[in-house]
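My main concern about presentation is that the manuscript never shows what a single data entry looks like. The format is easy to grasp once an entry is in front of the reader. For illustration, here is how one protein appears when written out as sequence plus structure tokens:
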Amino acid sequence: MTGFVRTTWLVALQSLRILLGSKKSLFFFGLSLLYAGVMALVVFRFGDREGVNELFSMLTLIIMVQALMPLTAMYLSISAIRDEISERSIVFLLSAPVPRPAIWLGKYLAATVSSLVIIGVGFFLAAILSWNLQGDLRFGAQLQASTVSSFGIGLLVAPFAYCAIGSFFALSFKRAMIWGAVFVFAWESFAGSTPAQSGVRSATVVDAIRSIAIKGSVAATGFRREMADWITGGRLWMDGMSPEAVIDKMVPSIPHSIWNVLLTALIYLGLALLIGSRKDYESGEQNG
């Protein structure tokens, strides 16, 4: 047990240094900072008319939750494993007298922490800028802690699931990056936007993160109204239901959504460790 923990820790530290120092991570860092810059510009220009909470919620949902965060976590988790397999440097680790699952678990943890750092920097900077861009109208003071925390909670737990899924792809498939792209753009984007009645949307990670944001951002009334209208397929007013009633009835609670994300992470991570402990990554058959 001690050897397993020690191996996991050492692999995680080594992989973390490699990931955070790579040009790939710098690229995603740049995108994260770009998100903060776009947020600051939009809030400064339109925050007095549209409302800071609404702008912060909508931009974070579109840019960060539905695009940048899953892409970052998926790419880093796959890269942490597949790069070493393709370069054959993984042979040295696998030939050592250490448990294989500890190696993959260490790389998963490194990718998760790297994703949290990259996403966290951009999100924190966007929140700070939105909070302080007050100007003469002092509209920045309207940004509420509930708006920031609701999205923050979602962005905190999501990388655990996405990195677990990325690790599963990396250990299962030769073209893991393609599988990761299909998962993000086809499954998460398409299935995550299907009507609630179909039941498919609840099987995506993005729906759970979106549910946390909708449920917790009580100060972003305009955003919640738009989401309630989307949830009902544009029938919000036809059905005679208020946005709050729709959200209370059709959006899962925050603890339930968090549990769904963590359960997804546990399932995919367990499958990844099981596959990674049995497959041959030394002969070159899995390289590419």
Remarks:
- The CA atoms of residues 116 and 156 lie 7 Å apart.
- Confidence is low (pLDDT under 50) at residues 134-140.
- Residues 52-86 form the longest helix (35 residues).
- Residues 19-276 form one domain.
